[in-house]
Design a protein that fits this description.
The protein is α+β, with helices and mostly antiparallel strands. It has one domain: Glycosyltransferase, CATH 1.50.10.140. Helices cover about 40% and strands about 15% of the residues. It contains 13 helices and 19 strands. A hairpin with a 6-residue loop joins strand 12 and strand 13. Helix 2 runs parallel beside helix 11.
């Protein structure tokens, strides 16, 4: 199959996944919620909703769905988020019941999963320019109590990662309440953008300076690394923010940082090809997602913690590298499609595969945030739609100004 055709099939399959695995039942209190993974269709992830809201934008632009239908779905989804979905001071519960929108189990109220959802809200508002969507979107954004999760330590400012009121709740190791801090370079950069317009500007800038810029090297070039070297942590904020056209206040080129991290991840897999049959030049990608042992968190060097390769290739992790290393990513897509038909289904590629176990393992699952990230990156590679829509929105333009981002010369 020619590259353009394969990309189009993967993109349309991704959109179809969100149509089929989002609650679109009229009158449902959970209308607009999207599954965490196809493994359990009763469990919604608030982060998946952010990718779904972006899917409706892509679908309307490409004619997969009528613009009016996309607007109707978006309106009702935002209504669910504002009136039904469980939240604490505006921060949503990580997992929700698909039908009721209520918090499941004793999951945390998550800052990053809320932020992923809000990225979809911002994108939808900017694209549709619909009065009702804008009204609810602004209410949702304004409801977030960013000051509640800000704290200072040793002269630096940080965001908390989450809040959980339950003694035996998710991620609670001592007393219930706040959980950990965002003090590393990772996927949370979108949070500084979302909060910048609502916090005191000096505090907003202090928060952005607060996370560490730990540096590793690949091929003699520096990379600001996340602790585990996980691909997704280089991709989630960059799926919406057009880092190809902006430098951060210190001149950091986050686009090139992700490009180098993608190359390093591929190189790491190739280096371990002798140990794991799955890895080679056209089969790489160490990230988080499905694996033979369940949900897996994997990474690659450079990283702060030595990664432990296990032979699982994160297909979506590699696909999400498309705008950064297109030729290498397209070569892998063609290899998988032609040589491993088990990796492909109704919605395009499945989450992952591993040939280093006996018998060889192919995921039959799709995770909303994984399929969503690769979907956005494919659209950005083809048209730049999500990057342009989100980055040019008033919310993000104000944030870039407050934080001191600068547009690259000539762009």
């Amino acid at each position: 199959m020619e590259d353009p055709d394969l990309l189009q099939r993967e993109l349309k399959g991704s959109f179809d996944f969100f149509i089929d695995y989002t609650n679109l039942t009229p009158g449902s209190r959970g209308f607009g919620l999207t599954v965490d993974a196809t493994k359990d269709v009763k469990v919604a992830s608030i982060a998946s909703v952010g990718f779904a809201l972006s899917a409706w934008v892509i679908g309307a632009e490409r004619g997969y769905i009528s613009r009016q239908r996309a607007i109707e779905i978006t309106r009702q989804t935002l209504h669910t988020l504002y009136h039904t979905a469980s939240h604490h001071r505006g921060f949503f519960a990580h997992f929700l019941d698909m039908d009721s929108g209520k918090r499941l189990w004793k999951c945390e109220y998550s800052t990053i999963d809320t932020a992923l959802c809000l990225n979809g809200v911002i994108t939808a508002e900017a694209y549709f320019k619909d009065e009702e969507i804008s009204l609810i979107a602004q209410k949702l954004l304004g409801r977030i109590d960013w000051n509640y999760i800000v704290f200072e330590d040793a002269g630096q400012a940080f965001f908390r990662m989450a809040y959980n009121p339950d003694q035996d709740g998710d991620y609670v190791t001592g007393e219930p309440g706040f959980i950990s801090r965002w003090d590393m370079a990772a996927e949370q950069k979108m949070m500084y953008l979302q909060a910048a317009g609502q916090l005191d500007p000096a505090l907003a800038r202090k928060l952005y300076r607060g996370f560490s810029r730990d540096t590793g090297f690949f091929d003699g070039q520096p990379i600001i690394v996340n602790p585990g070297g996980n691909l997704f942590a280089y991709q989630f904020s960059e799926a919406w923010l057009d880092t190809a056209r902006y430098l951060d206040p210190d001149g950091v080129d986050w686009f090139n940082n992700t490009r180098l991290a993608a190359l390093a991840n591929r190189s790491f897999c190739i280096e371990h090809a002798g140990e794991f049959k799955t890895y080679h030049s056209n089969s790489w990608g160490s990230s988080c997602g499905d694996s033979p042992a369940g949900y897996d968190v994997s990474g690659a060097t450079p990283s702060l913690h030595p990664p432990q390769p296990n032979g699982t290739v994160s297909i979506y992790g590699a696909l999400s590298c498309l705008p950064f290393i297109p030729e290498l990513t397209l070569a892998m897509m063609q290899y998988l499609y032609n040589e491993h038909p088990q990796s492909w289904g109704k919605y395009g590629f499945f989450d992952a595969y591993n040939l280093s176990v006996n018998p060889p393992w192919y995921s039959s699952a799709i995770y909303g945030i994984d399929k969503g990230c690769s979907m956005l990156m494919i659209e950005n590679y083809l048209s730049g739609l999500v990057w342009k829509t989100y980055t040019n929105s008033p919310v993000i333009q104000k944030a870039l100004l407050v934080l001191g981002f600068s547009r690259r010369a000539g762009l």
